[in-house]
Amino acid sequence: MKKILFISLIFAFFSCKKSEDFSLKNYHTFENKDDQYTGGIKMIPIKTPKGTFKVWTKRIGNNPKIKVLLLHGGPGLTHELYESFEGYLPKEGIEFIYYDQLGSYYSDQPKDKSLWTNERFVEEVEQVRIALGLNKDNFYILGQSWGGILAMDYALKYQKNLKGLIISNMVSSIPLYNKYAQEVLGPQMKKEVYAEIMQLEKNNDFSNPRYTELLFEHYYTAHILRKPQKDWPESITRCFKHINPEVYISMQGYSEFGITGDAYIKNWDVSKRLKELIVPTLTIGAKYDTMDPEHMKWMATQVQNGRFLYCKNGSHLSQYDDQETYFTGLIQFLKDVDEKKI
């Protein structure tokens, strides 16, 4: 009896080992994939009230159980914010998909402000999901900053299609974001610097080079990516060069200290609806973020199946300035959901 049990255990061990090796061995293969010709890139047609346009996606790797669609921030930035993922996820066999939203650099850029609404972007994500063949058995969304807003809105409508949700560096209420920026982050700056920035904003002098100079020197390097600007990764500087200001300003506005004016997301708030989310959810906050990490922690308690990841050395782009914490926690969450541990 013991001999039979021993043989069974040996067989099980080698069966599992073979399965793992097969998975990693085939992670980068394009065999039987319809995007081999383009190296994983697909231009996906998106139907909108203003016609059909194409958005850019690129698949990295193969994993039939874990496919992570990355929703970039901005709005109007690009997938380039996520290029650091290539240093961590492939070795774990995790498939992820770059995606430039409509209006962003690698996708079509129609000139129609009526397209820049949360509701239309949600339907765009759903069309991307269908085109890529993603479903509740493998489909994860990771949204950061504005991408986190889009991820929450998508999940509140289509969570039946999701296996897991990651809300990275984004709170669930713009009014609360405004309050944190104006009452906590702003006053942390040198008084004379903050006063000068506020005067420039009061004068609507956002195109003044001095405004950008002050933000980079005193705000972005403290709360967006905690490195001197000369040391920022090339992928981030390239991403900033590729921003579509029409999309960004239409939805986010000019100010970096809250959403003001007639920006589309000015009054966005789903904090009272978080309890509707039953899909496993990871919220990621950081000590030096532009978003209140305590609110991110609270969000994880409001969803029905939540977990919080705190990046103690990170800021808004924690995937760069606190990589060890960020990717360790993200990978563990993806594996735990896949193994039904959460």
From TrEMBL:
<comment type="similarity">
    <text>Belongs to the peptidase S33 family.</text>
</comment>
<dbReference type="InterPro" id="IPR029058">
    <property type="entry name" value="AB_hydrolase_fold"/>
</dbReference>
<dbReference type="InterPro" id="IPR000073">
    <property type="entry name" value="AB_hydrolase_1"/>
</dbReference>
<keyword id="KW-0378">Hydrolase</keyword>
<dbReference type="InterPro" id="IPR050266">
    <property type="entry name" value="AB_hydrolase_sf"/>
</dbReference>
<dbReference type="InterPro" id="IPR005945">
    <property type="entry name" value="Pro_imino_pep"/>
</dbReference>
<feature type="active site">
    <location>
        <position position="289"/>
    </location>
</feature>
<feature type="domain" description="AB hydrolase-1">
    <location>
        <begin position="68"/>
        <end position="322"/>
    </location>
</feature>
<feature type="active site" description="Nucleophile">
    <location>
        <position position="145"/>
    </location>
</feature>
<feature type="active site" description="Proton donor">
    <location>
        <position position="316"/>
    </location>
</feature>
<dbReference type="GO" id="GO:0006508">
    <property type="term" value="P:proteolysis"/>
</dbReference>
<dbReference type="GO" id="GO:0008233">
    <property type="term" value="F:peptidase activity"/>
</dbReference>
<dbReference type="InterPro" id="IPR002410">
    <property type="entry name" value="Peptidase_S33"/>
</dbReference>
<protein>
    <submittedName>
        <fullName>Proline iminopeptidase</fullName>
    </submittedName>
</protein>
<dbReference type="Pfam" id="PF00561">
    <property type="entry name" value="Abhydrolase_1"/>
</dbReference>
<dbReference type="GO" id="GO:0016020">
    <property type="term" value="C:membrane"/>
</dbReference>
